[in-house]
Amino acid sequence: MADSSLFINGLQTVLVWSSKHIIEIIVFLSIFLEVSKVKISPISWLIKLFNKPITKQIEGLREEFKENIKELKEDISSQIDSLKEEQEKQKQSVDELVYTTEMSEISRIRWEIIEFSNSIDNGQLHVRDEYRHIKDEYKKYEAMIAKHNLENGITTEEIEKIKKHYEENKGTTSVYF
Questions:
Q1: Digits of tens for pLDDT over the chain (177 positions)?
Q2: Is 119 exposed, middle or buried (0-12, 13-18, 19+ CB in 10 A)?
Q3: Is 158 exposed, middle or buried (0-12, 13-18, 19+ CB in 10 A)?
Q4: What is the distance between the alpha carbons of residues 113 and 67, in angstroms, rounded to a whole number?
Q5: What's the whole-model pTM score?
Q6: Inter-CA distances, 60 with 2, 52, 68, 69, 111, Å
Q7: Of 105, 106, 140, 126, nearest to 172 (Cα)?
Q8: Which of 51, 150, 166, 175 is in Cβ range 3.0-4.6 Å of 145 for a Cys bridge?
Q9: Which pLDDT belongs to residue 176?
Q10: How far apart are CA 110 and CA 91, in angstroms?
Q11: Distance (Å, rounded) from C-alpha 30 to C-alpha 42?
Q12: pLDDT at 114
């Protein structure tokens, strides 16, 4: 019986001490245990407490980042549009310049053919390379007028006259070889 009363006295002492320190015991145990019905988890609570401002700040930064990205996309899109417009204007300028240059070249070649034909009519002698040059220029002339859908009136007559003169006189001294 002595053992039994010693055990009971020890149990009573533990219970009295436990009843006085119940809150400390619950807090201490809640660090390591989570009760599913009643969740008392001070570590989780502390993490949530400290995590809320950080999460809020991160969310604010995320929204600010999204807004900055949106503004950046709009700026880039605007710059691309303005670059496209500028390129189109430059392309039109280049096209106009090419057209003007080609029209000038057509006029130059036409004039050269007419002058060559007139020089033949005036009795001027020409070497074979001059005839070849006129023939090559006429090929360029034909390509350019076809490209621009132009008519080839008098120049065709002049080139035919030049070819005829060449064929008639290639064996004489009227044409230098």
A1: 567 787 788 888 888 888 888 878 777 776 766 655 556 666 777 777 778 888 888 898 999 999 999 999 999 999 999 999 999 999 999 999 999 999 999 999 999 999 999 999 998 888 888 999 999 999 999 999 999 998 887 888 999 999 888 888 777 655 553
A2: middle
A3: buried
A4: 68
A5: 0.55
A6: 70, 12, 12, 14, 76
A7: 126
A8: 150
A9: 55
A10: 28
A11: 7
A12: 93
Do residues 113 and 141 make contact, with C-beta atoms less than 8 angstroms apart? yes
Q: Write the DSSP assignment of 151-177 as a string of letters.
A: --HHHHHHHHHHHHHHHHHTTSTTEE-
Which pair of tokens denotes residue 17?
A: 């001490």
Q: Determine the pLDDT at residue 119.
A: 93
Distance CA(63)–CA(141), nearest Å, equals 65
Q: Which alpha helices (DSSP H) does 122-152 contain, by range?
A: 128-147
Cα distance between residue 160 and residue 166, in whole Å: 10
Inter-residue contact 126 to 175 (CB < 8 Å): yes
